[in-house]
Write a structure and sequence with these properties.
Layout (H helix, E strand, L loop, with lengths): L7 H24 L5 H22 L8 H25 L5 H8 L2 H12 L7 H23 L4 H23 L7 H23 L9 H34 L1 H17 L6 H18 L13 H7 L2
Helix pairs in contact: 1-4, 1-9, 1-10, 2-3, 2-8, 2-9, 3-7, 3-8, 4-7, 4-10, 5-7, 6-7, 6-11, 8-12, 9-12
């Protein structure tokens, strides 16, 4: 029986979810010149943490208590928060926000590939293998010209940024073994663990107290913590509940497109033809891998708990 078409409300929710994903890289780009990368990542975590704790208290949840679960959440926090936030802040000191969105769009492909290798719960047919190969070719096209030019500054920044989606996909595969952990508890625990890593690192390698952010920077930072970090988790969760994980994956496919358009509209960014060609290949690869927007595509950068549930 064919699936029903999305209602206009569901389409609005889908577009809002994609926009919230993209807002993370756009808002982060606005902050990279105002705060050092570790300080920016730590500030983002510290501002989002109270909202997570409040949600956990209101919903009468608690942090994981089993030592094995706590260790899993701590490891996952490295992949879904610490490494991505830091890599994005470092990489965006050089590259555009739209390019960051393109590189992060390979998360669904990496999640599927790593899941097939380490969990063996996904069968990779010819179509999916072709999709993964196409998507990875897109990454090579995005980075390739800089690499051929001698691994210049842009290529190094792109490779650093690429550490984020690699870490995120790895954490997604890890958390498939811990699906019993409540998503609200998982998200709060991940932010607690990330703050315990990022705050000391910021004080060791940078001088966060020397920063004197003005009102505009503080407002943008708060928007990054709420609109760019927490809102995607909420919207993605609602989208999965309404349309299912398969069709909710479309939001991740649209995210780099929205990021490119947002960078052009708000930051006056102009991407080269190789970046746009790479984006096209990544999108084609995602559609080949997921067919009718399969579950591997449901993994999404800023929404760890919702994304993990979406892969069930």
């Amino acid at each position: 029986m064919p699936e029903q078409a999305l209602t206009w409300r569901q389409m609005v929710l889908l577009l809002a979810t994609s926009a919230s994903f993209a807002s993370s890289v756009i808002l982060n780009k606005l902050m990279v010149n105002a705060l050092p990368p570790l300080t920016l990542a730590a500030s983002r975590v510290l501002l989002a943490l109270p909202f997570c704790v409040a949600a956990m208290v209101l919903m009468r949840r608690s942090l994981p208590r089993e030592p094995r679960d706590r260790a899993a959440v701590a490891l996952a926090s490295l992949g879904i928060i610490t490494v991505p936030y830091t890599a994005l802040a470092i990489g965006q000191q050089t590259i555009a926000s739209g390019l960051s969105g393109i590189l992060y769009s390979i998360i669904p492909l990496l999640t599927l590939l790593l899941g097939a290798v380490f969990l063996r719960d996904e069968r990779l047919g010819l179509a999916r293998l072709a999709g993964i190969a196409t998507g990875m070719a897109g990454v090579v096209v995005v980075i390739g010209p800089s690499v051929l030019g001698g691994l210049g500054e842009h290529a190094v920044a792109e490779l650093i940024t690429l550490c984020g989606p690699i870490a995120y996909a790895s954490a997604m595969v890890l958390m498939r073994r811990f699906r019993h952990i409540d998503p609200v508890s998982l998200t709060t625990g991940a932010f607690v663990a990330a703050s315990m890593v990022l705050v000391p690192l910021a004080f060791i390698f940078e001088r966060p107290l020397d920063s004197r952010p003005d009102v505009g920077i503080l407002v943008t930072l708060l928007a990054l913590a709420t609109v760019g970090t927490l809102m995607p988790a909420v919207l993605n969760y609602l989208l999965v509940r309404q349309v299912g994980a398969t069709r909710a994956a479309v939001a991740m496919f649209l995210m780099p497109v929205v990021a490119v358009l947002g960078g052009w509209a708000f930051l006056d960014e102009r991407l080269g033809i190789h970046a746009l060609a790479g984006l096209a290949l990544i999108l084609v690869g995602s559609f080949l891998v997921n067919g009718r927007f399969g579950r591997a595509g449901a993994a999404s950068m800023p929404a760890p708990s919702a994304a993990i549930r979406a892969t069930d």
